[in-house]
């Protein structure tokens, strides 16, 4: 067959983003400033949150989100507390939990949705469990009704890694708004792109103030006048007043300016991704040799996950080879079963029950990219390639 062009992702920039970059360059103000604040305001409004804090990456958004829970006056986590996490996610779901001195407790995922199962979460709770960190994997919402019941029944914090789920909804409500905080990524190939970037949103005023401080060295500059972190001292001295052990994970003005333009395009971007997903489900929903991700609520379809079954089970290398020869980029389903990574030797953790579904996904899973443009012809070609591998033909 003819080699096709199907990369993992594509950009959505045009003259508006380039003009926004030029405006920043002409202004001479490159560090975090008014354009970042404008993006934060618009981002919070778009997703129906009270507050948004932009960072230099989605990974940093997770970092300051988790760390902020160590200093919250009412929802405080303490070193040694357990945080339940899904066995499949990206590394920076887990690393901030470890870096905060908390203990990871891994739970298997639902093999159909690839997300946490509320019943398994409930069974995983121990006397040391204090939080659940839910991940909307590849844009697919969790069952937040079920997770909220478990969290409320057990007095657990619900936290939300929505770095792959921008624009997804559950029960008509945006993902990223169900936990004490929700995080987003604006890295290239994500739903919107500011080159590098991330956002934390929250409705909690105290958490918001803590996030602002942690983002910028742990000082009190940029704090609202009513913040509890402010100290009544000489304003000159307060400029370099440090109250928390923070970081420097601030974004650049260019990223904020690009974000303002990108956010306006988000509804159309998500609509196109969902249109591509309709074609994907039509092509592969009843395909005997793959299991695709079952949608919960309204996924924003970051990517298209496949777990190989039937004639293709155990033959991922052959599938990847056929894809590569035919111009189709693919990746493992995020990091597979994360417990199988060597880095686990450095992380304080425990495992609840077996991780059979995660192991199957680890061995037989892969994903294809989704795009902000029509990729129905590419998806049809992928079906032909998989048919060829399953039947033994040379795809």
Question: How would you characterize the overall build of this protein?
Answer:
The chain has helices at 15-27, 34-47, 58-68, 91-99, 118-124, 144-154, 205-215, 235-238, 253-284, 316-325, 356-364, 376-391, and strands at 51-55, 82-86, 103-107, 129-135, 157-161, 169-170, 173-174, 182-185, 198-202, 290-292, 303-308, 330-331, 349-351, 365-369. It has two domains: 15-261, Aspartate Aminotransferase, domain 2 (3-Layer(aba) Sandwich); 266-391, Aspartate Aminotransferase, domain 1. α4 (91-99) links the parallel β2 (82-86) and β3 (103-107). It is of the alpha/beta class. The chain has twelve helices and 14 strands. Helices cover 37% and strands 15% of the residues. The model has no long low-confidence stretch (mean pLDDT 97). The chain has an eight-stranded mixed β-sheet, sandwiched between helices. The protein has a four-stranded antiparallel β-sheet with strand order 10-11-14-12. The protein has a two-stranded antiparallel sheet with strand order 6-7.
The residue ranges in which pLDDT falls below 50 over 5 or more consecutive positions are: none
Roughly how many Å apart are the termini? 7 Å
**Which CATH class of the largest domain applies here?**
Alpha Beta
- The 3D shape can be described as globular
Helix content: 25-40%
How many domains comprise the coordinates? 2
Characterize the biggest β-sheet. 8 strands, mixed
Could you name the key traits of this structure?
4-stranded antiparallel sheet; 395 residues; Aspartate Aminotransferase, domain 2; 2 domains; Aspartate Aminotransferase, domain 1; single chain; alpha/beta
């Amino acid at each position: 067959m003819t080699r096709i062009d199907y990369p993992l992702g594509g950009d959505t920039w045009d003259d508006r983003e380039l003009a926004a970059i030029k405006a920043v360059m002409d202004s001479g103000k490159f560090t975090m400033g008014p354009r970042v604040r404008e993006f934060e305001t618009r981002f919070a409004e778009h997703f129906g949150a009270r507050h948004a804090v932009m960072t230099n990456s989605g990974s940093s958004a997770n970092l300051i989100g988790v760390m902020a829970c160590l200093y919250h006056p009412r929802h405080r986590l303490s070193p040694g507390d357990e945080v339940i996490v899904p066995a499949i996610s990206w590394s920076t779901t887990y690393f901030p939990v470890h870096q905060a001195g908390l203990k990871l407790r891994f739970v298997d995922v639902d093999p159909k949705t690839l997300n946490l199962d509320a019943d398994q979460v409930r069974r995983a709770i121990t006397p040391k469990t204090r939080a659940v960190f839910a991940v909307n994997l590849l844009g697919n919402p969790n069952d937040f009704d079920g997770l909220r019941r478990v969290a409320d029944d057990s007095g657990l914090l619900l936290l939300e890694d929505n770095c792959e789920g921008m624009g997804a909804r559950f029960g008509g409500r945006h993902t990223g708004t169900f936990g004490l905080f929700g995080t987003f990524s604006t890295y290239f190939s994500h739903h919107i792109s500011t080159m590098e970037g991330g956002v934390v949103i929250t409705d909690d005023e105290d958490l918001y103030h803590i996030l602002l401080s942690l983002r910028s060295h742990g000082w009190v500059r940029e704090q609202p006048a009513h913040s509890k972190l402010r100290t009544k001292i000489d304003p000159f001295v307060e400029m370099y007043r440090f109250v928390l052990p923070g970081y420097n994970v601030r974004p650049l003005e260019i990223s904020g300016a690009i974000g303002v333009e990108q956010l306006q395009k988000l509804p159309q971007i998500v609509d196109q991704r969902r249109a591509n997903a309709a074609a994907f489900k039509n092509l592969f929903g009843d395909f005997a040799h793959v299991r695709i991700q079952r949608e919960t609520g309204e996924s924003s379809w970051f990517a298209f996950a496949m777990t190989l079954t039937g004639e293709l089970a155990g033959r991922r290398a052959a599938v990847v080879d056929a894809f590569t020869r035919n111009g189709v980029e693919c990746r493992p389903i995020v990091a597979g079963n994360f417990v199988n990574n060597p880095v686990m030797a450095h992380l304080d953790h425990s495992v609840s029950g077996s991780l059979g579904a995660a192991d199957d996904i680890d061995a037989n899973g892969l994903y294809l990219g989704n795009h902000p443009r029509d990729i129905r012809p590419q998806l049809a070609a992928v079906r032909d390639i998989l048919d060829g591998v399953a039947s033994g033909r040379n795809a």
